[in-house]
Amino acid sequence: MAIPEGTAPDALATAALADDLSFLLARANALSLAAGNSALAPLGLRVRSYSVLALAADDGARPTQRELAEFLRLDPSQVVALVDDLQRRGLVERRPDPSDRRANVVVVTDEGRALHQQAVAAAAAAEHDLHAGLDAHDRAQLAALLRRIAFPD
Amino acid sequence: MAIPEGTAPDALATAALADDLSFLLARANALSLAAGNSALAPLGLRVRSYSVLALAADDGARPTQRELAEFLRLDPSQVVALVDDLQRRGLVERRPDPSDRRANVVVVTDEGRALHQQAVAAAAAAEHDLHAGLDAHDRAQLAALLRRIAFPD
DNA sequence: TATTGTTATACTCTATAACTATA
DNA sequence: TATAGTTATAGAGTATAACAATA
């Protein structure tokens, strides 16, 4: 059976856990991940593979697999599988890094760029539903606060 | 190999994905989950089992397994395994719901309540590190924004 | 008929170690 | 000696279907 959608019971809404930042983060992320995966499924992508494709398609990023792993908080061995899949489908290519021949730079193909554009639209539509209760100012504020947790420098 | 800690490469920090709310949510949650699990490990708990224990220990909540599943966004079959584990260790008990004999209410034992108190302290310490960059006002604001995504009513 | 808890199963994701080629 | 990518594997988490007891 699928994880039930819908709202939580009122008795639990007032529980101490419901005010816990980590719990709210986990629950919000679970909803976001589910919405993202189902929006990307028609394109043969999941949130994971979409993220790799998006970084490969970002001009000027030219990420190595190691950088992808660190940025996406994945193990390098998981990046291997994700890049394998995208490469098999002709969406990205591995190019040796001229400055370090151990490293592969992951670059998008023309086909990958086209799919990425569709995926951005699909992901944006899914986010729109998820953040329906937030206006542009709220979203910017939320992004700024989350960034300080996600990238503590 | 473990997922590498530390900061992300600068070239990717300016990528479009780095401004995506869903991505920031995912990365912040990954850090939060890792910190929580490692803080709770000495008590034999993980974030999952801690959440179930916390709701069972919340006075007035008296959640059924179904309510736990919905609130924590878990499949009911996963709740079975989590409650089995906590019950085996004498931390919670299943009690038949008087108003619906199909349902089990999950209630904390004295031993469970004692462990829960330790766990709250451990989790709070882990959160403190994670949210070191945020003051009380920031945290309250973040919680309010996340709640609107986590519980869209 | 529908729902709660349960069992079973398959699949995905996560974590760890070891190997190779380069640095 | 250390690092990038790769392979292999075990464990944790997720998704789905079916069943007994109860509503």
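The CA atoms of residues 27 and 33 of chain B lie 10 Å apart.
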